[in-house]
TrEMBL record:
Protein name, per record: 2-isopropylmalate synthase
One annotated GO biological process: L-leucine biosynthetic process
Pathway this chain belongs to: Amino-acid biosynthesis; L-leucine biosynthesis; L-leucine from 3-methyl-2-oxobutanoate: step 1/4
The entry's keywords: Acyltransferase, Amino-acid biosynthesis, Branched-chain amino acid biosynthesis, Leucine biosynthesis, Manganese, Transferase
InterPro entries noted in UniProt: 2-IPM_HCS-like, AIPM/Hcit_synth_CS, Aldolase_TIM, LeuA/HCS_post-cat, PYR_CT
GO MF annotation, one: 2-isopropylmalate synthase activity
Keyword Transcription: no
EC number of this enzyme: 2.3.3.13
Keyword Amino-acid biosynthesis included in the entry's annotation: yes
Family designation: Belongs to the alpha-IPM synthase/homocitrate synthase family. LeuA type 1 subfamily.
Chain ranges passing through the membrane: none
Span of domain Pyruvate carboxyltransferase: 5-266
Length: 387
């Protein structure tokens, strides 16, 4: 029997923290409806205490979303938790997400506090949040760099205080996949009441390991993954939703599944990119414009014989337009012949050989013109001054 991994989408909260990606309430509501249609289990709608606009966005999303849980962020501060609870009042399934830093780095330099005092604040915040809803998630910020024995103590205490989900964020994207997986395993082995809560992975991408770490966490036993569309998020971003969903589909032998409809992944990626005015890098896994493009002769020849030689996912499975054969100076005869055929020309082998020679002369001269994004590019003489 496969186990469900809950998908907690934080595009509207952590994703929206990206400079320049701020959304207004109407945009947030529109995206929340698409996330619900996509099949995510929890939508983190915002951080209500942070601004009146964000409070209003959470309130409107709470009123309109029927199938997913709507979550609001707060620090371990009573007025934050009250604000989250007030914004979530109309929600069918409200969740308050509260928490505090548990690494010595955060305890000392952010809070000028001690492990004991932080533990007390964590318990108090959880109990306070439980006054408003029985769905309380607690985050142990910077868990990636927290001491495992102390982290286990906090996790056990907040579960005893009423947390039903405990988030283990690798806030700074520091961990290696095996370390993050071992951290989750350590908690499963050392927290006596761990079966009373869901452990959640929330990984940042500072070393490009967010997806790998989240998957390692799920393999170790976490049953919720926090992620964003297109991997948007603070600094280098968060775990990308489309990547975790497809990793779990591709590796069904892991015995883990999500409720997300993969056919909607490309359309929601485009919508988020347009609404947030944040382009998707062409080589982005699953949703990048080159994710199903083949440009070199060796790959094109194999692909034309059998698509699965170079594609582990059919583009239709994730709602992408289709595979593309791009003609470049690295392309081979079979790609050129394929293009002629598509254009309605029938050439014999000798003709294709001759045309291929001509084609290479043209292709070698051609350089893709990328859109200039900055007018302030340094002149080459500045970068490499003459001696
Ligand atoms: O990265 C992080 O630790 C967070 C928490 C607020 C959950 O985003
Ligand atoms: Zn985060």
């Amino acid at each position: 029997m496969a186990d469900k991994v809950f998908i907690f989408d934080t595009t509207l909260r952590d994703g929206e923290q990206v400079p320049g990606c701020k959304l207004n309430t109407a945009e947030k509501v529109e995206l929340a409806l698409l996330l619900e249609a996509l099949g995510v289990d929890i939508i983190e709608a915002g951080f209500p205490i942070s601004s009146p606009g964000d409070f209003e966005s959470v309130k409107q999303i709470a009123a309109i979303i029927k199938n997913a849980t709507v979550c609001a962020l707060s620090r371990s501060v009573e007025k934050d938790i009250e604000s989250a609870a007030a914004a979530l009042k109309g929600a069918h399934r409200p969740r308050i997400h509260t928490g505090i830093g548990t690494s010595d780095m955060h305890i000392k330099h952010k809070f000028n506090s001690t492990r004991e005092a932080i533990l007390e604040r964590a318990v108090a915040a959880t109990k306070f949040a439980r006054r408003f809803t029985d769905d309380v998630e607690f985050y142990c910020e910077d868990a990636g760099r927290s001491d495992n024995a102390y982290l286990a103590q906090v996790v056990e205490a907040v579960i005893a205080a009423g947390a039903t989900t405990v988030n283990i964020p690798d806030t700074t994207g520091y961990c290696l996949p095996h370390q993050y997986g071992e951290k989750i395993q350590y908690l499963i082995d050392h927290v006596s009441n761990v079966d009373k809560a869901v452990l959640s992975c929330h990984c940042h991408n500072d070393l490009g390991l967010a997806t790998a770490n989240s998957i390692a966490g799920a393999i170790a036993g976490a049953r919720q993954i926090e992620c964003t569309i297109n991997g948007l998020g603070e600094r280098a971003g968060n775990t990308s939703l489309e990547e975790v969903v497809m990793v779990l589909r591709q590796h069904a032998d892991l015995g883990l599944y999500t409720n997300v409809n993969p056919k909607l992944l490309n359309s929601i990626s485009q919508k988020v990119s347009d609404t947030m005015r944040m382009p998707v890098q062409p080589n982005k896994a699953i949703v990048g414009s080159n994710a199903f493009s083949h440009s070199s002769g060796i790959h094109q020849d194999g692909f034309l014989k059998n698509a699965q030689t170079y594609e582990i996912i059919a583009p239709e499975e994730v709602g992408a337009e289709g595979s593309k054969i791009i003609l470049t100076a690295r392309s081979g005869r079979s790609a050129l012949a394929h293009r002629f055929h598509k254009l309605g020309y029938q050439f014999d082998r000798d003709d294709v050989d001759a045309l291929y020679e001509e084609f290479l002369l043209v292709a070698d001269r051609k350089k893709k013109c990328w859109k200039k994004t900055s007018t302030n590019w340094p002149k080459p003489e500045k970068l490499f001054p003459k001696k």
